[in-house]
Amino acid sequence: MKKVVLFTRYDRMGASSRLRMLQYLPLLTNAGLSFDVFPLLDDDYLKRIYSGKKISKFYLMIRFLKRILQLIRLRKEQVLWIEKELFPYFPAIFEKMLNLIGFRLIVDFDDAIFHQYDEHKFSFVRLFLSRKIDRVMQYSDYVVAGNEYLAARAQGAGAKKIEIIPTVIDLKRYSCRMYNEDSNRLVIGWMGSPGSQALLVPFLSGFEKFAKKNCCEFLIVGSNIEHGYSGNLQFVKWSEESEVELIQSMDIGIMPLQNTPWQRGKCGYKLVQYMACGVPVVASNVGVNCEIVNFSQSGYLVDKTEDWELCFKRLMSDSYLRKKLGLNGRRAVEEKYSTESQVPNLVKIFNEAE
Known about the structure:
It is built from 17 helices and 12 strands.
């Protein structure tokens, strides 16, 4: 079996690591690959971050040293599958060394992480690290990008090979919601985490006003900003075990974004989750949202603030339309946005990284 070593950013609690890499492992193992998994940061790190606790410098030093030891023990016959970068806020010296030694590197990006450096508020970070991710892309044998925006950056950086693989779901975990045409209080839902709630905050006051006027409920899953909002906004903690059931309780799923460089790099995973459960979607007309909604015909794209209200009212008033768009989304997930549909592309990448 071909040996692949995963250098993920997080363990299973980290959405990016779980969705871009870890959820594929059973299917890729069946395809003849074997894996060692080395997360940089463990679940305790995310628990502390999400609860607002500080991370000690000693903890980070230990985790970084542990990764260095893992790199030292590598064998050249192994393929390295790296999430984003080996060491955040360090120059790309480790990726360069591995490239020069002859290791085969596959690097995966599901966010415009390059803007974390080239748009940083501190000038010295911009000075020394603004081109770091471009160099990581150059040193890699393959760049796997979650959308066209990220792939365009890889192409401009001079990446040798680029493959676009969207962020997908394990279809076995998801089933369509039951459609209740008699419901007189519809649920509009957002699925996320404390790490992504900043994308939602600019829209919350408008959504709260709409819910009060139109006898509906906003279900906010995974955020920790519930204080200061009315009962029309219901805040629920996220867990991997409950997320599907919570999505199935939604009548409409939303993905608001603002048209910024960082948010244009998002991969639209929320939309794919809603679609997998047969939930129609309303999303900002930004980045990969446009591709997903247009391809799936599962809902509406929004340009202006007032368009959210128009789309919500249209869907709330027509249960047949909600069901039709929701089923369109489910079919699109089966075709393009499931792990099963993307495994052949990943196997091809590993084979070409010989």
